Amino acid sequence: MSVPERFAPQEEENESGGHSLEPMHFSDLPEVLVIERACFSDPWPEFAFVQGLSCADCYSRVTRKNGQVSGYLIGYVSSLEIHIANVAVSPAFRRQGVARRLMLDVLEGTNLRCTSAVLDVRESNHPAIRLYLSLGFRPIGRRPRYYRHPVEDAIVMTTKCRTPRKNARERD
Length: 172
Hints:
This protein is α+β, with helices and mostly antiparallel strands and 172 residues long. It is 27% helix and 34% strand.
């Protein structure tokens, strides 16, 4: 069975009501690191986030609800492609459309001027794979033994970025 068949969307995530979206700052790192450690068996170390935030090609966003970081995304822009390197949502805020909102910000972000996005996902991360498929990502390859703790393959996925539809005033 192919990846798209195995992970067809089940139910739509709820709207991301109440979650604001903004650039990630160094001051967000304590909360981001708590989420990172809660979400991943082999979390990024703090210096990886510091390096990312210090890099001109890094695109990083956080979502907040009631002032608390609820999720984040980090990507790296190279020419016309963005590599989405890390996306996570606090367990307390899952199933509220947070990851979808972060991903749509990248895919519809006119300021990025990217034409495509690529990411790696753990082959056992079925909720993430379903989300990515629902956003138009398609598998293009596999990275054997890419992840540690436990060792597991990564599925490489890509999609085209899209420009949001312009409203009537912007078209005129």
